[in-house]
């Protein structure tokens, strides 16, 4: 039996005819950049979230970069962000000459630990980029409570949490600006790179749209410095075909996660292996199914030898990537980097494959740890 880490083909079978039809229309009219499908998907995504403005982007990283530019982040400004995350948020901060201030994450949810935010705020703090990790939201109400009257922008990086729920509100509506990614393995993925920015602030939306198109207010009238950050028409067409099925996909992700939870509790309980806790006020979309386990690297090798692919999200603290010397020890971040492993996971993953994955992991633990 071949086990895939991620498989897009089952879903493709259900939407292939619509994608073929939309692609044929684009090939016929030749509007590969900024075709009508782009505004159509922006409208559909805004409606899905119940937000005033959606601006599509070329990818999730550009969505973060543009959001920081729209928030007027400048060289020397400080931006608070978690130390345990994908590198895109910190990378975008540094590209603008700003300084990422890394704080540790919660040992329960793996999201930014709000207990450390207040101590990180000073007169240079201009923004917080709170990354929603592995499918669930950070605690935005608590973040805003800590900020108080300080003029600090909050950017919600919902690349892994788009479609999830926080306190009965949809993720993507919780902060001044929210971003997401449509990378193929994300909860809502296209067939290449793509992203989006969401805001209820119409003035910010105007600035964001200008930045994504070389700072243009209209053609050849450049009112600010921008980038080429536009979503291409073909990817917009893919998202339009997928969006009507998205809630069903989320349900299937949650069912698959529950099956893993049950299997982990049954087979792996002697070794205290488990996933991050989903906060009571959150409903996760399970962008990945990730466990924390001792002897992670040896276990990954054991699984690979038996045809079971896995991934490490993430093996190195962000601040270690660039050799930054101004970062204090972040113990939870560093522990997670040594112990997390993500298992094969997608909405239609067969249950028998999940059983094989967990039983093989139990075999590995019995050999390597007992």
UniProtKB/TrEMBL annotation:
The entry's keywords: Pyridoxal phosphate
Pfam family, one: DegT_DnrJ_EryC1
Gene Ontology biological-process annotations: polysaccharide biosynthetic process
Any one GO molecular function term: pyridoxal phosphate binding
Cross-referenced InterPro entries: DegT/StrS_aminotransferase, PyrdxlP-dep_Trfase, PyrdxlP-dep_Trfase_major, PyrdxlP-dep_Trfase_small
SUPFAM superfamilies: PLP-dependent transferases
UniProt-listed Gene3D superfamilies: Aspartate Aminotransferase, domain 1, Type I PLP-dependent aspartate aminotransferase-like (Major domain)
Entry-annotated residues carrying N6-(pyridoxal phosphate)lysine: 186
Active-site residue numbers: 186
Record flagged with keyword DNA-binding: no
Keyword 4Fe-4S: no
Signal sequence range: none
Superkingdom, taxonomy of origin: Bacteria
Stated family: Belongs to the DegT/DnrJ/EryC1 family.
Name used for this protein in its record: WblD protein
